Structure formats: C-alpha cells, structure tokens
From TrEMBL, chains A, B:
Pfam families: DHH, DHHA2
Protein name, as recorded: inorganic diphosphatase
Enzyme Commission code(s) on record: 3.6.1.1
PANTHER family recorded: BNIP - RELATED (PTHR12112), MANGANESE-DEPENDENT INORGANIC PYROPHOSPHATASE-RELATED (PTHR12112:SF22)
Catalytic activity reported: diphosphate + H2O = 2 phosphate + H(+)
SUPFAM superfamilies linked: DHH phosphoesterases
Cofactor entry: Mn(2+)
Domain named DHHA2: residues: 180-306
C-alpha cells in the first residue's frame, strides 16, 4: 500500500511540484510515496508540467485507506484532504504559519520561514544526498519563482534565491528570470476565463477565531487586465461568501510589476478588514502598496484583528 | 531583547541539554537565544551538567515579554510555558507526535521520528556547519542515552546511535555505554526521595479527547528498588489526580534491564486503561512486558482508546 504526497486544496504550483519532487525523493530512499492532487491544475502549473515533460499527479481526495500522507505547503486541516482526521500523517513540509493539524504518532516535519516549500524539499534532497533529476529540478525552480514572485515577494529569502540558482544549473536553464516572466504571462491571461475560476484559482480558507475567512489571490503582470471585470469579480465574491457561510471573502489582485495589491472585500464586518490593513475601503476595494504576500502581509494582520 | 530556548515542564535531560545546545548554535549563527527551564532539574540532569561543567539554564516561566521562544521536546501547549498563547513561537524542535501549538506567523520546525531532540539538534549543527563544543557534545550525548535508555527503547533509531557515536568522539568519551549506566544508576537512586518528587520527576499531562491524563515515568536499573514504596506511590497518584482534576493518572515504573514497565493506575474509568494495553489491572497495577517508551508505547494506544 503506497503513501501519498499531497499539497493543499485548490493546488498551486508549489503544491503540485513539491508533491512530485517529494515522491521522487522518498521513492529514491526506499519509501513507496506517490504524488496526488486535491483539485484541478492552474494554467501556470500546466505550463510548468508541460515545459518539463512531467505528468499530472493523480487526482485523489481521500487517503484514509492509504499507508499515510505527507502534507505539503500547508498545516491547516481545512486546507488538506477532507478525511485528514482519519489519515496517518507521516510528515509535513511547509513554509507557512503552523496550523491545527495534530497527530497521534511521531512524524517528520520540515517547516522553514522561506518563500516556497520546494526550497525545503531541496534541503531534503541535500540531506539525503539524492540527485535531483533535471526535469524535477526545473519544476521545483519554477515553483519557487512562482511563490516568491520572481524574488519580489517579501517572503523571499536568500535561501530561495540560492536554491533557484542551484536548481537552474541542474535543469540547465540559463535565463531563469525570463522563464519566470514567461510563466507569469501565462498566469496573467485572465480574459475569457470564467469569473468563478479566477476567484478560485488560488483560494484558501482560514479559521480566524472561529470565523471562516476565504482569501483568493491573482498575480498578474498588469492590473489593468482586470479593469473590465472588477464588478463581476465582486459579485462572485458575494456568492462565494454566501455559499460557504463565510464571514469574509477577499480577493487580492496583485500587480507584480507595480508591487502592490488591490484588495476586493465582502464581509459581515468590513471594519475588521479596514483595521487590519489600516486602510479605508471604497466600494469594497482598497489599494495596498507593497503588499504581495497573502501569507506574510495579509493573513497575520487579519488573524490578529480577529483575535 | 533575547529569545529563549525552552523545553517542557518538569524538564528532563533532553529538554535541558537541547536548550543549552540550541542556544549555543543560534548564538553562533548570530541570533541572541538563551537557554531557560520551566522547573527544577532531576538528579540525572544535575549529574550531566556537573559532569560536563555546564551551568543550569535560567529558571523562567513566562516569555511573552521576550523576542520569542524555541519550543523543545514537545509541541503541546499544556507542556509549554503557561503564557505560550501570548508568545512568538520562533521554532519547534521535537521528536514526539504533533501537538496543538499553532502560530500566527511562519516559523522553523524540525521534527523527526527519532529517539531524542538532541539527535535533531545535531542535524541542525551539521546543517549550519557549526562545530559543537566538547562539553555540549557530551551533554547532548547523555540526553540521547537517557531518552533511548541506552538504545534499548523502541524509540531508538539508527540516527540516534550514529549521533551518540559522533558526539562521543567530539566529547572524547571512550566508553559511552559505561557513562550511560552510571547515569542510570544516579537516576535509580530513589530511596530517601519524597514520593511526590518521584511521581513528578518525569511527569507529563496530555489532553485526550478533552480528558486530562497525567503520565509519569521512572526508569531504574532494578524494579525491586520500589518494593517498599508502591503503596505510597499509589496513594500519591490519587492525590495528584484529585489536585489536578485529572481523569487518569498513571506512573510507569520502567526496569531498563528487564525491559518492561509496571504500570500504576488511578482513573475515573480503569477499563479504558485495560482496553488500551490489553491487560487486566490488579490493585491498580499491571506488568507490561517490553514497554519502555511512554511516547511510543503508552500514549498512542491510550489516545486511541479515548478517541
Ligand atoms: Mn507555497
Ligand atoms: Mn525527548
């Protein structure tokens, strides 16, 4: 019976590439671990897998009947498989705040305050002295460029930069920044995509003092891409809030060139959001200069204000 | 403002030696981190510090006013500082099941399914390429010998054995097993010690499905040392249970030569304990052959039976 490596719901490139990379590493050291995914892939992730000739991980939603799971890129039960409480968690590899997963038995946890889970997976390869295949190194590198917004995010550390440089060398990629921009151009193609798909593309739920708060993020190379669709996006946030009985739903529209985010908000109490970010909402919107990271700049202040 | 490295309440040798070792490592890489302890030291730990000329960590019970804490040898809030919810947890280094500590910000977590926290700290020294001072290496080695019962505990892994061998070399100790036996002889001197002190020497509380369960353990080289005091120990367990409003209090009397434990139990529902260990209690006592590890052999079955 195999174990599985699985990232969070609404998988991003970090969740998918780390599942592939960890499974390869574990298999190399004699553990039967296979990559899985909890949802459909984004255009950005499809671009990466296509670029490096990698297969999509198996779509698999429950794991109680497996040898166990390695939880990647999250440690909140709400972001993991629905049957996580019935699973054996063998390990957690993550770069976020520590969530509410608990276990009944000892396990392996690699959590570091770095920009991307794949940076930590690279440390695991080094620790076990396992060579990273070229194509997996390329995918890991792209995941780091994605999570760190090509090093522009405040979550980016020197460990991430060094890791990208090492992986680029293994993958034989000379201009990794150009590849990063190509990837973000793919990510920025929002026209023609259903609004709900955009809202959900990188959407995470958080439990904040027993209030359910959903926060989505879209990173584009030019915010003007959204000019025609903000009203539609706002209406859909309202729907997402109602459908999930959420207290608050927010969407961050992040401009990676201007280095800031427009925040769209629907909430039972918008004043909490205004207080958290020390801003004033106009028609449920506010521009947050310098804000690029949901994890580091958006979740903690809101969590503190709710608490 | 410094940060602190602190193990669990009722500190054991692993908690104290890892606090000293981590503080030295963090200081070496430029972080101001100091060792602290949440309680008085056991005779075993005093023996180790004396042997290697190390100072006792500062007795310090609250940390909200500090730069943050590294949590060692546990990840359960109940085992940590009383004001843990108001502290910034900078990191967790542990070898137990994952407990209920959560954080608002990203952090560093090193958890491995090995026999001792100090085995993981050694990995951290290797990762950062920092040389371990002779005396700290000796203390780390003793902590591993203590937690793994000189490699006899089922929690002991090859990583622990290799780590002890490497640390013995750094510390210049030729016969580390003899030193281990010397240490366990110190640990075994129970005569003349107040009963409450024995019960509390290595005592941990667990939250099991919202029931408070306290489990103490005494490891000795000969169980006969307790022959005269079992009735007294049992009476004191009853008192500890009442004072702390606990559902169950147990004391493991572990014979490290016979490799098994006598279990003393007081409980609101002894049948849960009998079910967990598939045994029958006689006068609140049972012999559990082969059981040496609270973490691996005592806590998980009880947790499962409560759940
Ligand atoms: Mn990530
Ligand atoms: Mn320990």
């Amino acid at each position: 019976m195999p174990a599985y490596a699985v990232g969070h719901k609404v998988p991003d490139s970090d969740s998918i590439c780390s599942a592939i990379a960890l499974s390869y590493l574990k298999t190399a050291i004699g553990e039967d671990v296979r990559p899985a995914r909890l949802g459909e892939l984004s255009p950005e992730t499809l671009f990466i897998l296509d670029k490096f000739g990698l297969e999509q991980p198996e779509l698999k939603l429950t794991f109680a009947d497996t040898a166990g799971i390695y939880i990647l890129d999250h440690s909140d039960r709400i972001q993991g498989p629905d049957d996580i409480d019935d699973c054996t968690v063998l390990g957690i590899i993550d770069h976020h705040k520590l969530g509410d997963i608990t276990t009944a038995t000892p396990l392996e946890i690699w959590v570091r305050p770095v920009g991307c889970t794949n940076t930590i997976i690279k440390m695991m390869y080094d620790f076990h002295n396992v060579e990273i295949p070229k194509n997996i190194a390329g995918a890991m590198m792209c995941a780091i460029l994605s999570d760190t917004v090509i090093f522009k995010s405040p979550t980016c550390t020197t460990a991430d930069i060094k890791c990208v440089e090492a992986l680029a060398e293994i993958a034989g990629i000379e201009d990794y920044k150009a590849l990063g921009m190509e990837m973000f151009t793919v990510k920025s193609s929002v026209q023609g995509t259903p609004v709900r798909e955009l809202v959900m593309r990188d959407f995470k739920d958080f439990n904040m003092n027993d209030n359910l708060v959903g926060i989505g993020q879209l990173e584009v190379i030019d915010l003007a891409l959204f000019d025609d669709m903000k009203a539609e996006l706002h209406a859909d946030l309202q729907a997402v809030k109602a459908e999930g009985n959420r207290h608050t739903v927010m969407l961050l529209l992040t401009d990676i060139m201007q280095e800031g985010s427009e925040l769209l908000v629907v909430s039972d109490d918008s004043s909490i959001v205004e207080q958290a970010y020390n801003t004033k909402l106009t028609d449920g919107k506010a521009w947050l200069p310098g804000v690029m990271s949901r994890k580091k700049q958006v979740v903690p202040p809101l969590q503190n204000t709710f608490a």
